[in-house]
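Q: How would the structure tokens look for this protein?
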Amino acid sequence: MDLKNHIRGIPDFPKPGIVFYDISTLIKHPGAWRETISLLSDALKPLKPDLLAGIESRGFLLAAPLALALNCGFIMIRKKGKLPGPTIPHTYDLEYGSDTVEVQTDAITVGQRVVIVDDLLATGGTAAAAVRLCRLVGGDVVGTAFIIELTGLNGRKKFDVPVTSLVNYEF
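A: Here is the predicted structure in token form.
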């Protein structure tokens, strides 16, 4: 199955000149969604993750069913102030400013094998921040996984672990 046939490109969103690759059309198609989870599960199984860390919010949609398929846990990486209880933040630079992501202090046990999961890899800034955050709290980050990769933006160069993506678009 060609997953690209189930991903909608929306031109000029969120601003002119940008094409937003919308996975809502993929998720609503049971066969395409099942294939997505199956392909990523097969690719990540050799990494033997203990946890999948989903990045807010589309990463949650992907990481939760993928964790079930891999029989591992799922944790959330969220923007500052969105997680209850004690958290550990990590602030990182964006093209114009900065952002902060957080994880709950008890989400990762030191040494657990973690794979970072999100829907799309563009420049890699947020996913790289998630890698650093998981390492900061003692996780052994063993890979990253995405449905879509915008290959022309070279986001995968920010990682020292395997990068898995199912669908590539030039940018």
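The two ends are 23 Å apart (CA to CA).

Residues 30-44 form the longest helix (15 residues).

Upvote if useful.
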